[in-house]
Amino acid sequence: MATTPTPSHDPRADTRHRPPHRTSYQTTTEPLIVTPTFLTRADATPRSERPLDEGATRSRHGIALDNPDTEPAEIALEADPNLAFEHWDEYWRKVHGPKFAYEEPGSTSEPVLRYDQVHRVAAGPSSFFRPPYLAMVAADEKLVADPHAQVPTYQRPRWDGFAYIAYATEADINRVLKQPQYDKRVVADEQTAFRMVTRSITREYILLPSAAHRDPISLVKIHYRRAGLSREEFQARLLHQHADLVLAQAATHTYVRRYAQLHNIGSTQFDPEGSPMDAISVLSFASMNDVEDYLLAAEYQAIEADEASFTDEVRSEYWTGLNYSVINRILPELATRRTAQAESK
């Protein structure tokens, strides 16, 4: 009688690429190279509202839909708009993630040291709708009697999530992505699931390492520099003066489980949406309430005021996401040597 492989032995299972199923790990205090792939889901949003990569958002016949809003029933991922978001969210984690981690015969994903998916959660804090959340009351301090007429407009962040993919070196990116498995079949899957992905390359600085890298929630901040600052000046300010301020706050050590910065150093290809991003901060938490309480802490106001002094507040944004670890070959995680920034230039 045939036996069913256990998750750690089935070559198709993504669990075999992370703790506790994996048996060998590495660690470092040097900056890793991360491709923070921000993405939007394949859906029927008009191009005027959300950009669309060439070849993305495939039909049920494998044809790229240039204007998916004019033929939504043809979208391969999900034709029913009432199910579109849920189906995409499930597909990215349960179908696309294992495909990326899987190793075809003659192929390898070993140079990928870490692959996390961060799925944006609309109910989490964002720069568009931030805590505290207040009861909607009338002048008499009673709840409004006409909620149907006072539904707040939903302000959608630019991205639906991002893939946090770490390598030891830039050369390792091509070692993985130029393999036929990725260059052809994983890309084809991306074009089915996503309408746009960014292509930035960043240098990762872990300021507060995670004890086990199983933190469920992340606050993702996309930074654009203030006019008059060079990218190098902005990144130096973020990594040193600002990071020191963040780490000096008691609230950070009460609520934040992990704090990392990703500094943009280039792109793998033409990247009109990702290239302008100067840096990304990712702070991880044990719960959504911890994110809310951190943002409401008096000490956080000093952090926010400092950010405002050297970032473009209009272009910058933050939102909260749910973390899924697909690949993790780093254990334990260690803080990055910040002096490596100067040495790498």
UniProtKB/TrEMBL annotation:
<feature type="region of interest" description="Disordered">
    <location>
        <begin position="1"/>
        <end position="68"/>
    </location>
</feature>
<protein>
    <submittedName>
        <fullName>EthD domain-containing protein</fullName>
    </submittedName>
</protein>
<feature type="domain" description="EthD">
    <location>
        <begin position="227"/>
        <end position="312"/>
    </location>
</feature>
<dbReference type="Pfam" id="PF07110">
    <property type="entry name" value="EthD"/>
</dbReference>
<dbReference type="InterPro" id="IPR011008">
    <property type="entry name" value="Dimeric_a/b-barrel"/>
</dbReference>
<dbReference type="InterPro" id="IPR009799">
    <property type="entry name" value="EthD_dom"/>
</dbReference>
<dbReference type="GO" id="GO:0016491">
    <property type="term" value="F:oxidoreductase activity"/>
</dbReference>
<feature type="compositionally biased region" description="Basic and acidic residues">
    <location>
        <begin position="44"/>
        <end position="57"/>
    </location>
</feature>
